[in-house]
Amino acid sequence: MSRKVIQAYLDEIEQLLVNCSNTYIEEYSAVILTTERANLRIRIRFALRYLLAVSEAFVIVDNQITYIDYRYHFQDEQNNLIFRYDSTPHFPNLPSFPHHKHLFDNVIACEKPYIADVLQEVMEFLE
């Protein structure tokens, strides 16, 4: 059953990517390490300029995805950070620790976003 949960999630992500307009997928790597664990890495170019780099490591617990680690990094063509969500435990004073969002000049508390919401945020930025 765990492998089916992983495959359903990866299929959902692929469908999200297919529905993104004006994009180029530079890298898509989904590695199923065990029946309960997988890693996902994606590099998406928007308008051939902006880059969204996605990295997720997750396990299946009670038929639910539990994220071990994640990073959603969005930057412009000069490699300037626009935003990055991640779970690196380096801001222990934030109420959402270890989850947080880097902005170009600040770090704020936030919960882990769903990848579809990150893609929507990118699309809204580009409008």
UniProtKB/TrEMBL annotation:
Species of origin? Nostoc parmelioides FACHB-3921
User: One Pfam family name from the record?
Assistant: TumE
InterPro entries this protein is in? TumE, TumE-like
Protein name, as recorded: DUF1249 domain-containing protein
Ranked from the top, the taxonomy reads: Bacteria, Bacillati, Cyanobacteriota, Cyanophyceae, Nostocales
